[in-house]
Specification:
Length: about 140
């Protein structure tokens, strides 16, 4: 017998987010990955729909805006995605504090904190399943 879980954060606004881009990733241990992303980087789980240990759909909010979608690794169907193939750049206002948080949580630091030649303060980390996360202050070109 399957059990379906739905976790919804009841303490935040319920306004539908503005249209945006949602990077998506898959994980072999999706529930463990959600815990890691909260602890290491500060993402906040908004919803997790799971059948036992298998996550069908999850949304994690970035405190400064935007978010990611994720679920368990899928090898069949229209949306197939292997674990460890994700990479994202996440804008943050305090990369130094985030760097310390990520290190303390066991993230693998791939590139130490640096100030780039275009003025962004960046570092790169890998999560336990090998996905790449780049964090920095560069917000993109005005458009």
């Amino acid at each position: 017998m399957s059990t379906e879980q739905q976790t919804t954060d009841q303490t935040t606004e319920t306004t539908t987010p503005a249209p945006t881009v949602w990077p998506a990733l898959a994980a072999r241990d999706a529930l463990g990955m959600i815990d890691f992303l909260e602890r290491a980087f500060g993402f906040r789980r908004v919803v997790v729909i799971a059948d036992g240990d298998r996550v069908q759909h999850a949304e994690l909010a970035w405190p400064e805006g935007g978010g990611i979608m994720m679920g368990s690794e899928k090898t069949e169907g229209h949306w197939q995605q292997k674990a460890g193939t994700f990479g994202a750049y996440v804008v943050c206002s305090d990369p130094d504090a985030l760097y310390e948080r990520a290190k303390a949580a066991g993230a693998t630091i791939v590139m130490e904190l640096t100030t780039t030649d275009y003025g962004s303060r960046d570092f790169i980390a890998a999560d336990p399943e090998g996905n790449s996360w780049s964090f920095g202050t560069y917000r993109g070109e005005p458009h």
